[in-house]
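ok so heres the complex, two chains, lmk if somethin looks off
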Amino acid sequence: GENVEQHPSTLSVQEGDSAVIKCTYSDSASNYFPWYKQELGKRPQLIIDIRSNVGEKKDQRIAVTLNKTAKHFSLHITETQPEDSAVYFCAAGGLGDYKLSFGAGTTVTVRA
Amino acid sequence: NAGVTQTPKFRVLKTGQSMTLLCAQDMNHEYMYWYRQDPGMGLRLIHYSVGEGTTAKGEVPDGYNVSRLKKQNFLLGLESAAPSQTSVYFCASSGTPAYNEQFFGPGTRLTVL
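and the predicted structre for the whole thing:
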């Protein structure tokens, strides 16, 4: 089955700086890569996703890049704000598949 | 719409006791999932269902059973709880597999003593 590794496990950044989280996956058949954000005590919520026919996708201050050859994808948060403090999970799945495999999560802390 | 709801929010069990967690969704989603979340281990899939009357094993199914008698409900059962099942349990649902976005419930925090 799919194995997703996520790094780093914790990340502390100064407010206004950028944050980057990287994930690798093992199954070359995976072609759907979502990112979920989980605030303390809350449920995970989708913030952005990318499909394999696209190399990069942006939504305001967040962006995701995908390198299918190397089997890795990354989340980029620019101009970080205190409300960006949360746990972020990457995941991988096949379009038309029923399941997602999640990474272990990255705890992001934005320092004021 | 309430989205995905879970009952109960918190529960404390003694080793060997049984319980059922209920997940309900009002989005007419075909696919439903049960995950457990443990520190440093992300979200691990326990069981899932691709439609009413169907269930399948995920990554960590041992010690759990599920049922999907109605499309909107997905039940997770623990027949004989063990301390290793202390965790936060999340239910999720998904509409079309081609899109794959999963909508999560608020979670159930279970402690087994």
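quick notes: The radius of gyration of chain A is 13 Å. thats all i got rn
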